[in-house]
């Protein structure tokens, strides 16, 4: 498992060095606020790839729980690499204010929707599941399984990285490449209340500058603690057994939370793209920058389904060769996913 972890980490972090076009304002009309979006960061193929991986994470709980940890680490690695690419674009002088919010939703938020309440990774008190409010608030104090400590810490690193980035974006980052007078609206939802603030509204800026210092400090602490936990998990072996996976009732409750939160996040991403005159026509789905991430998402989802079919063949198929064929197809598919990731990195 550790060798797979480090191989995935190396290939995913190579994405940080990928050169992207960056987002910028169209110069065909001085009055226009149209943004030429970076298709290599949040084009349709990129977004669909994230959505398919999110769907694979949810289905894997029921079809292939042994794959959840792999999806956990992979999604977290992509999140960290993508956030790093945003700051690479900022260093190059591109407009990244909108890009930051979109990538933040696609990475830190969507990954937490997929895995924060995963019944494969956590154990909760059965009595807590009887409360109707659980569907909105989530189970209280879930205990992360010992075998998921490293994967969970890696996932929280992406969230911590986003948390410490907020003050920088509102003190300086949002103004790099920004066209004066152009508004950028994002969608914000707190419980049942949704509104679309302009991130350049002075009141909004002051509020985030002040309040953003709190998550920044917490994020710094999170990074130190989770890095320590990753090293601890790598050095200390698990000596005892773990409880079985959650029962069907818990899984359904968790899945409901995942679907509600994930649906909101996806809606916010698409709303930000459509509501800010973002032109993503420069990249088509058949281009490598769009096609490879889309294939990664599709192959990941297919791998989950194939793993279930392989298990099904082993349970019911009278001919052992069927199960062997499933094993061979699964091995080939894993190889294709790894090749696609390396192609994207290069």
TrEMBL record:
Coiled coil: none annotated. Residues 1-21 form the signal peptide. Keywords: Membrane, Signal, Transmembrane, Transmembrane helix. The keyword Disulfide bond does not apply. The chain crosses the membrane at residues 45-64, 71-90, 96-115, 148-171, 212-235, 291-309. It comes from the Eukaryota. This is Uncharacterized protein. It comes from Coniochaeta hoffmannii.
